[in-house]
Amino acid sequence: MLRGRSLSVTSLSGLPRWEVEELPVEELLLFEVAWEVTNRVGGIYTVIQTKAKTTADEWGDNYFLIGPYFEHNMKTQVEQCEPVNDAVRRAVDAMNKHGCQVHFGRWLIEGSPYVVLFDIGYSAWNLDRWKGDLWEACSVGIPYHDREANDMLIFGSLTAWFLKEVTDHADGKHVVAQFHEWQAGIGLILSRARKLPIATIFTTHATLLGRYLCAANIDFYNHLDKFNIDKEAGERQIYHRYCMERASVHCAHVFTTVSEITAIEAEHMLKRKPDVVTPNGLNVKKFSAVHEFQNLHAMYKARIQDFVRGHFYGHLDFDLEKTLFLFIAGRYEFSNKGADIFLESLSRLNFLLRMHKSDVTVVVFFIMPAKTNNFNVETLKGQAVRKQLWDIAHSVKEKFGKKLYDALLRGEIPDMNNILDRDDLTIMKRAIFSTQRQSLPPVTTHNMIDDSTDPILSTIRRIGLFNNRTDRVKVILHPEFLSSTSPLLPMDYEEFVRGCHLGVFPSYYEPWGYTPAECTVMGIPSVTTNLSGFGCFMQEHVADPTAYGIYIVDRRFRSPDDSCNQLTQFLYGFCKQSRRQRIIQRNRTERLSDLLDWRYLGRYYQHARHLTLSRAFPDKFHVELISPPTTEGFKYPRPSSVPPSPSGSQASSPQSSDVEDEVEDERYDEEKEAERDRLNIKSPFALSHVPHGKKKLHGEYKN
Fold first, then answer.
1. Are 649 and 643 in contact (CB under 8 A)?
2. Higher pLDDT, 416 or 391
3. Which residue intervals are annotated with compositional bias (Low complexity) in the record (predicted)?
């Protein structure tokens, strides 16, 4: 039996405690298989890319990623090299000799992991034979017209072939293979059907059928145990894909998923309870200067303010220093991403701010890509007018400064009535006239192709948020990903997030939720829900999430209207905070980034690998279950300062005062809070093992 240093792990909420032995990685080979290796499609790319450094640091040259070959990705992201590992080199050579095209190199990301890339098109001539192999293995047939599924069959067959070659030349080393999502699942099915000596893990980041059902506005969480799975998959013409996903789940030694909420979903959709929950993390980079992220917030906020000056020219009757920037971003899934409930809550927030005669203005950005023709002419004109005014102001300032300088040199106090001549006044008056506009500021920056049926624009028309002067909530739909080369808003996504005050992501279907996690790492508060993996994770690990800038809307056990009211109260409470309170909250939010660092969350994956080795090779590896547990799971405590949530002691209207800020200063000891949080994060960390027999509650409403 292989033995190493003992590693004890305790699960959350008094669940079983696992004691395992640290793996001798020098005697193992680890392969991660995913369609998104070097190939950005969605969130799995982020998972693999950000986790690569932590895994490569642990496994060294025994860690490999397997993915598809695309020429443009290979040229820009991969440095070709020869395999150092003998088993891998032999496998690559053997496949190339038999008519395949296998590429090997280092992926040029942090950690520089080795990648094995298969050219799908080059091996397509084997498709019919491999369809027969899949039918013999699990009786699943793939229609000829489903090109994506056919590509996955080729990719999976090449993966199984490669793993067979590796195990034939492994020289006693044990192989662990982790497969991400149904796209990589065929490789797992064929490997198990051929009885390859490998330990397998299958990770689902979202169930195939779950995403389809939620997109159709079905009361999903309230009817999880009532769906006729085969019928639903068949009606959506994805039955063969569903069968591939379900077969992968049941063939794997260990089945994992990314969150507790997805674990419940997977148990009903895929008929197997996940063995381990493996939350998604990020590569957290700490600044050497403690408050550097606050400086970045101020810098990028100023750039967003410049855009707002241009967009609202002629209607800029609100104070930008008392303006809050909120945003929602992601795929254009109107209901799944919570854009519906967000817009409704904005209408109610607008009413509250107007009723209380607040001087706070809220500008909300919707960064959700949709089909467009081009930029909106009025939006482009706004930025041109802003730039023209800026140039005029600088020109007049130069002349003013020169006259002032000359007067002071002569020892005179200049006459302010004469320092500006008639031409200067004329230029300034013309500039003022140029800012007049007859129309309201546009609610979208682009010309939408489906303007009349677009869900966001249709809802804006219904609730009447047209950026009127009297509206305290202004809306801007930017139906395109952000880019630093854009003529409208020249900012990258990360820069834009840092410049905003709050990210709002009230999703109904969100297996994990990288957008609020990215906000947290950058020190920006965010709104999430208890139906997102991120929201559930924060509820589990933080005693008072709101105090740390994580607002969690209950969309699971409340009606749609109640959830909307709760979100409105969160937003209104945020508007009532003083500048000092927002700074305190951002400091707390940024400290949570340690909780999302792969250096900590990577051990969930370590636990899954221990477990799969003990099941695949029980005579060489073991995991002992010890009960009862001896320690509690880690949890961030409530901040010691009063109130626990920065908005908790605010008056009923969003007014702030210097006295209030002084009182808050007395309550808040940042260094003491930060030191306590640093010590807490080093406490024993919990690994989430889904308990068997524990009854799960379903949501009572679809909202």
1. yes
2. 391
3. 647-657
CA-to-CA distance for 32 and 12, rounded, in angstroms?
Answer: 27
What CA–CA distances, in Å, run from 552 to 306, 529, 548, 646?
31, 5, 11, 15
Mean per-residue pLDDT over the chain, rounded: 86
**Could you tell me the CA-to-CA distances from 227 to 230, 231, 507, 599 in Å, in that order?**
9, 8, 22, 39
The pair of structure tokens assigned to 438 is: 């007859």
> Which residue, chain included where needed, has tokens 């817009």?
343
User: What residues contact residue 205 under an 8 Å CB cut-off, 6+ apart?
Assistant: 43, 44, 47, 180, 181, 257, 258, 262, 511, 512
The two beta strands, 28-33 and 361-367, are: unpaired
Cα dihedral 69→205→181→43 (10° resolution): -10
Q: Are strands 63-68 and 198-204 parallel, antiparallel or unpaired?
A: unpaired
C-alpha pair distances (Å), 95 with each of 122, 157, 330? 12, 12, 40
Interacting residues of 427 by C-beta distance below 8 A, sequence separation 6+: 392, 395, 396
Asked if 525 and 666 count as a contact pair (C-beta separation under 8 A), the reply is: no
Answer for the pair 503, 367: CB distance below 8 angstroms, yes or no. Answer: no
The per-residue pLDDT for range 85-114, each reduced to its tens digit, is 999 999 999 999 999 999 999 999 999 999
Collapsing DSSP to helix, strand or coil, 373 comes out as strand
Q: How far apart are the C-alpha atoms of 613 and 598, rounded to whole Å?
A: 22
Q: Which residue has the higher pLDDT, 294 or 434?
A: 294
Tokens of 445: 């920056």
- Please state the three-class secondary structure of 218-257 as a single string: CCCCCCCCCCCHHHHHHHCCCHHHHHHHHHHHHHCCEEEE
Place of tokens 């809550």: 345
Half-sphere exposure (Cβ direction) of 249: Cα atoms closer than 13 Å: 27
38: left (phi over 0), alpha (psi -120 to 50) or beta: left
Band of the pLDDT at 143, cuts 50, 70, 90?
Answer: very high
Q: Where do we find the tokens 């929201």?
A: 535
**C-alpha distances in angstroms, 446 versus 369, 452, 625?**
11, 14, 58
Average pLDDT over residues 297-325: 95
Spatial distance between the Cα atoms of 90 and 83, rounded to a whole number of angstroms:
9
Q: Buried b / exposed e across 582-601, counting CB within 10 Å, b at 16+? A: bbbbbbbbbbbbbbbbbebb
> pTM (2 decimals)?
0.85
DSSP H helices, 63-146, are: 71-77, 86-97, 127-138
**Overall residue count recorded for the chain in this entry:** 703
- The CA-to-CA distance between both ends of the chain, in Å, stands at 53
DSSP 556-619: SSS-HHHHHHHHHHHHHHHHH--HHHHHHHHHHHHHGGGGGBHHHHHHHHHHHHHHHHHHH-TT
Order of all β-strands in the sheet with 550-553: 473-478, 361-367, 323-329, 502-504, 526-529, 550-553
